Amino acid sequence: MKHINMKNKVTLLFITNILLATGVPLTAWAQNNIGDRDAALRQMSSKGWELELKAGLNVGGATPLGLPREIRHISSFDPKLNGTLEGTVTKWLGKEHRWGVAAGVKIEAMRMSTGARVKSYHTEIIQDGDRVAGYYTGYDKTNYSSTNITIPITANYSFNDRWKVRAGLFVTCRLDGEFNGYVSDGYLRNGTPVGEKVTFTEGSSANYNFDDDLRRFNWGTQIGATWNAYRHFFLFGNLSYAFNNIFKSDFHTVTFTMHPLYLNFGFGYRF
């Protein structure tokens, strides 16, 4: 302090006086705004409106309906770490608020990686810069990912202050995505199941890429439940299934349909 000159002391004294003069009004302003927000939320709640913010994880993948005969053995499955963030508005009906209708907006990632042994699996590989379609037998590695904006609309039922369940539909818009992989340790029959044989052995492989063939929009159904841990905090879980194929309708390289099936779970805050 002895190194601070008179000019600096005057400056510090001036700043201190300004802070003391404005501190009380700023505190009062913040308290008033928090009070106004709480009052608005209480008024919305009394009219049956409920706001929630959720964060969670997606676990699952794009799967066919049943195991196709071409897939003989699944050797590996990695569901990846898929984050979700969702805001939901619910309107509870009646005096007891047992039934309600909810709509939300969710940003989510859906990814997976699988390895399988296949036989006569129709695909299209990239070899020496050219695309070669045919029937492959051997090892297949697949990577799938999709970043989406999803709008779920559900009917809700509240059993008590702790538990509620829901069921409904959703529509998804894909923002970005990929479906690619490689084949190895096997052979490809060019064109037909008895076509010219192209062999991949001793570490050789060939890539495939169907990124541009992914569908932009999907729709499906979801069911779920919520458990209130505290007044504002809760845990939730949802199971969703898309009705349509992840690929465009004019894409026929993969002969069976694949549908996103995911379990979404996490925690949330109720305002």
UniProtKB/TrEMBL annotation:
Keywords: Signal
Highest taxon above the source species: Bacteria
Domain Outer membrane protein beta-barrel residue range list: 37-247
Pfam family, one: OMP_b-brl_2
Signal sequence segment: 1-30
Regions that span the bilayer: none
Name this polypeptide is given: Outer membrane protein beta-barrel domain-containing protein
Organism of provenance: Hallella multisaccharivorax DSM 17128
Native organism taxonomy: Bacteria, Pseudomonadati, Bacteroidota, Bacteroidia, Bacteroidales
